[in-house]
Amino acid sequence: MLNAVKNLLTRRQIIGSGMGILGVGVAGVVTRNSPAIAQPAYKPAKEPPIPDEKKLGWAVVGLGKFATQQIIPSFSQCKQSKLVALVSGDRAKAENYARQYNVNPKNIYNYENYDSLRNNPEVDIIYIVLPNGLHAEYTIRGAQAGKHILCEKPMANTVEECQAMIAACNQANRKLMIAYRAQYEPFNLEAIAIAQKKQLGQLKAIVADHGRNLDPKDPADVWRMNKKLAGGGSLFDIGIYSLQAARYITGEEPTEVCAMTYSTPNDPRFKEVEENVNFILRFPSGVLANCTSSYGYSSTKRFQVFGSNGTLELDPATDYYRHQLTVKREKVQEERQIQEQNQFALEMDHLSESVMQDRQPKTPGEEGLQDVRLMLAIYEAARTGRTISVDSRE
Amino acid sequence: MLNAVKNLLTRRQIIGSGMGILGVGVAGVVTRNSPAIAQPAYKPAKEPPIPDEKKLGWAVVGLGKFATQQIIPSFSQCKQSKLVALVSGDRAKAENYARQYNVNPKNIYNYENYDSLRNNPEVDIIYIVLPNGLHAEYTIRGAQAGKHILCEKPMANTVEECQAMIAACNQANRKLMIAYRAQYEPFNLEAIAIAQKKQLGQLKAIVADHGRNLDPKDPADVWRMNKKLAGGGSLFDIGIYSLQAARYITGEEPTEVCAMTYSTPNDPRFKEVEENVNFILRFPSGVLANCTSSYGYSSTKRFQVFGSNGTLELDPATDYYRHQLTVKREKVQEERQIQEQNQFALEMDHLSESVMQDRQPKTPGEEGLQDVRLMLAIYEAARTGRTISVDSRE
């Protein structure tokens, strides 16, 4: 343990100092002032895992269904990340998971003593898996405690919150990454490559649909009916995957959006947040993307890309596993065989690697801010019945 | 031949007189003033074909690819319709097809002597398979020649033309039907039944996509690049299938539309007509439909329906054959086994039957007018960047 702490301290001093010491950090990776001027495309580490004591230590904040069923079990697949701390308002629950995942009970925190993580050198990175309305507070407090942050999507409820989160992490010289797992998931990466390498010819349209039935009896869904905690309805929760797909498939930022929303009257789930949002995005290259988002239809997580020479469909596109990628060209339909991988592990390792290499993660705070800005524009377009111009990132 | 003519004359006198003679017409079907007050859903005739001399006689106007490769060969599958005349500007071509399909050469017409069809009692119904910009003229002249009309979609280029066509047919007391083949095609009928019988629960969204690469070297496509002949671009030609699907699946009329269009700059195909149109329709029950239409992407003819308890996908949905209907409920995916049928024959027989029974066809002129009205509203929404309210049929 002592060695691990020492290693981490050394690593933090070298990499996280912001002083740009030239040299080679842990695991042979190069630190900030190396010759890497243009940041190459991210490749998931293909090497074997680094020794456990050199992995970066992660604290998971919030022990809801997603954290306990997807995130925490995925550390076992990580090559550069390890779970070392838990933050929860429920001590007994945290102790239970700590036992199960071999987390030292002294590394269990609650929301009051969360800031004292600053005194725990085992923790390098905090993963915020809280309701959206709490993302800003816990990101800012985490950065001020000297930790790098992975924050669940959507980044926050407002542009101002996003900006404050980015500013806090910059000021603390900590990395901020938004947990856009699809951008680390191999089937999605293959779809992006196919589209951007023009294997479908010139891209013309994208159709992306994400829906599920919000379950008012599921504790993981209860807070999503609360506007203050959720920020928005289906759009903020899952429509964001449709929006993301359109953005990462084109590799462009939309310039215009029009939209309509609908919520079933008298459905108690939709007193505060919306049920359905349909929207169209215009991209600079001319691609028009039709997206749907719903809390009212049965499970749907798919997108389709239409090009001049072919189409691809990823269905499911943004599930946890069992993705299916079909490419159709010249009437020949082919199902792509791709090695399924744990996208949560890839995602977390990306941030660990970004910290170790002192590089901007692929999905930084600015990526999350852009989606929040766009989602608010989508709401505005629906509310006003007008096509809204959206500037690219400021 | 004489007997056939006699039969037709008798039938026309009874059924087409508009005088509502109570009684039983040919083939045992009931004429207008029978007790059938509410018009039941159309069922394709399951009986064997009626004797050839009792079938209604059809003239096909325009001998392009669609007419010669799809329509004309389909008469052999008809039970109540027979091909008896051809109208073409190319006499040699017409003679060739007349020989092939056993049409009496005296029943070959051109666009100048077209009106003399009035003197040919063998012809009951005229099928207009001309460029869109000629639909109004040839429908009106055909009705004035005393014939019933099946007119290809889109009905015409403007609302005014559609209204004039309806008025001309009313005045001549002739039936007017628009050739919306998908509304007679068994897979589409099954999809409609599944949706409207609530087998997917409450409908939430429809996604309908129709695209193909317009081929400037294909004579069948050349006139489609001409605004005056085509009326519009991809929307008028194939986006109309997306629009239709949204309407017939819901069984409702949209109340609002928003849209965006895009045409590749400097693409010679899109000097006069648009390439891509994406639009959203709002229906009274709350269903929001996302539709695409393109002359720039590889062949796509599909729609998907999202309900609270399941989804269905028809892909291809509006091809000539080999449709595929997939229904997914509670994670169980099922491909529906449906007997493929010749939709052109069903469609033509529907009009023959409607004429014989003196009933309004299922897709009358008003149906075509509604689509033209909606398509023009879609263009307006795209042009103005505003959500356009569309009144239901006047």
TrEMBL record, chains A, B:
<dbReference type="Pfam" id="PF01408">
    <property type="entry name" value="GFO_IDH_MocA"/>
</dbReference>
<comment type="similarity">
    <text>Belongs to the Gfo/Idh/MocA family.</text>
</comment>
<dbReference type="InterPro" id="IPR008354">
    <property type="entry name" value="Glc-Fru_OxRdtase_bac"/>
</dbReference>
<feature type="domain" description="Gfo/Idh/MocA-like oxidoreductase N-terminal">
    <location>
        <begin position="57"/>
        <end position="180"/>
    </location>
</feature>
<keyword id="KW-0560">Oxidoreductase</keyword>
<dbReference type="Pfam" id="PF22725">
    <property type="entry name" value="GFO_IDH_MocA_C3"/>
</dbReference>
<dbReference type="InterPro" id="IPR000683">
    <property type="entry name" value="Gfo/Idh/MocA-like_OxRdtase_N"/>
</dbReference>
<feature type="domain" description="GFO/IDH/MocA-like oxidoreductase">
    <location>
        <begin position="193"/>
        <end position="313"/>
    </location>
</feature>
<dbReference type="GO" id="GO:0000166">
    <property type="term" value="F:nucleotide binding"/>
</dbReference>
<dbReference type="InterPro" id="IPR055170">
    <property type="entry name" value="GFO_IDH_MocA-like_dom"/>
</dbReference>
<dbReference type="InterPro" id="IPR036291">
    <property type="entry name" value="NAD(P)-bd_dom_sf"/>
</dbReference>
<dbReference type="InterPro" id="IPR050984">
    <property type="entry name" value="Gfo/Idh/MocA_domain"/>
</dbReference>
<protein>
    <submittedName>
        <fullName>Glucose-fructose oxidoreductase</fullName>
    </submittedName>
</protein>
<dbReference type="GO" id="GO:0016491">
    <property type="term" value="F:oxidoreductase activity"/>
</dbReference>
